[in-house]
Amino acid sequence: MRCFKWSVFLYWFLVYGTKFSEEYDYYNVTIDRAPRQLREFKNEHPKPIGVITTEAGSPVDLRDTIIINKDIFNSEFFADTLTHFDGEPIPERVVQGHGYGAYGYFEVTHDVSKYTSADVFNGIGKKTPLVARFSTARQSINGNELVREHKALSLKIYTKEGNLDILTINIPAYDYRDPLDFPNFIRAQKKHPKTKIRDLNMEWDFTTLRPSRFHAMMWRMSDYGLPLGFRRMDLFPIHAYEINNKHGDRYIVKFNFRTELGLANLTTSQAMAISSQEPNYFSRDLYNAIMNKNYPSWKLEMDVMTLDDIKKLDYNPFDVTRLWKAGTYKTVTIGRLVMNEIPDNHFRSIEMGAFNPANLVPGIPGPADTVFKGRRLAYRDAHNNRLGRNHNRIEVNLPKGRVLTYTRDSKPPVRDNMRDAPSFFPNSFNGPVPYVDPSRPSQKLMVYDNNIADFEPAWYFYNYILKEEGEKQRLAENMAYTLLDVDEEVRERGLTMISWIDLDLAKRIRERFAMIRAAADEASHVDVKTRFDPLARCIDSFIEGHLTSHRYH
User: What are the angstrom distances between the C-alpha of 287 and each of 146, 271, 495?
Assistant: First the structure.
């Protein structure tokens, strides 16, 4: 696993007698439908679906499907095939490169008209279609899903009032509160520019210089950092959203998606075991569940505060690096998110998706914090770079209602390109005109953050969210492994800051680190083949069924 010095960890883990915390067979919880897809297509189409054509639509003769000993410059089929292949890749997402998705719907189950006029959240029983993309934060398009890092879900809900995009991650605390930190936060977790190897010095150095990140880091290093698949994790849009009802009354809310299947996580050793056989376990599990009609679902709740409530708080409710304190808000249920269909073409329906948190609808003006303001710019620019200026006219991103705009031209797709309507605004020739929303609040909420590091959220996480001794110990172990190759100065700076969070946690990490360092010193004298031989034997035994239990049958 990329987050740790696995060679040393595994050598110590296997040679020195530590057992898997929970040994079990790798089982997908549903019938594996993925290998059946081609056979199912053939059963659906007993005969070929038609004659191959060139991209211009001309039928291709059988003799033109082989180019050996022929004039390649006279074959349009060859030219189509080769040149298109060269240009097939599009720029990869800067983050969340590896992903998988599905179609589904959002269903309203409770009346929340008191809080928001947004059509999508009003009318019990109303179902609104959507597309969803799950992803992993740092992984490239062919990455390993079982790495300990943020898992995300991006939603595009096709409401009557336009697209509502909600972007979530699987932990409720974010890593930074200054949008200027985002590029450097990502760079610190990627590969070193010279070695092209991930260097944990970079991440720990950045974290200790931006200590507000410790809270999110502890969530990720805990059991919560490795969910048992996409279906078994809760999801959080992070920001405090401003919403308003039809009278213009304003509320501040945090949305939370709670898995209805039940929250479940993996230990590091369990994730390693699954990854050795199926690094795409998360995607395979989602695919199989939906194809077998075990539709994943989440309950959407919102934690609610009034503007008067905010004035009484002793903390900043707009700080994305912390949680709201218990007793300062109330929780209201809105509805259910259900995923019930796999797209027939992943690239067309998922990878061409452009999810932007700035896509909001009337009744949800959106967050006022600085991080969200930065994301408004960053996501638009990323989509323009990856998909082009007309990314919102690609089918998966196109709103269901009529789109009337003064933006036109540029690279395809352009759709009808607004035909012959006036191309400038304002005009007196009956081009599209704006409307006035009478319920829109007339005042704007302004939020100011400070740069003081607040360790209280991290302390609370360690002492009150992690309730069991094993959870605390696994957090300490996971953090200790990441420190193995970190420069002593940076390591000591980090451990000092952790002691400010909680002395017990710092003590546990130091003790575990000393054991790992001793094992590392011994392992450094063993050649790589010998070092990994115990792991290879362990994997062989696992595949042959000798490491079993029935926990996940």
Answer: 16, 19, 42
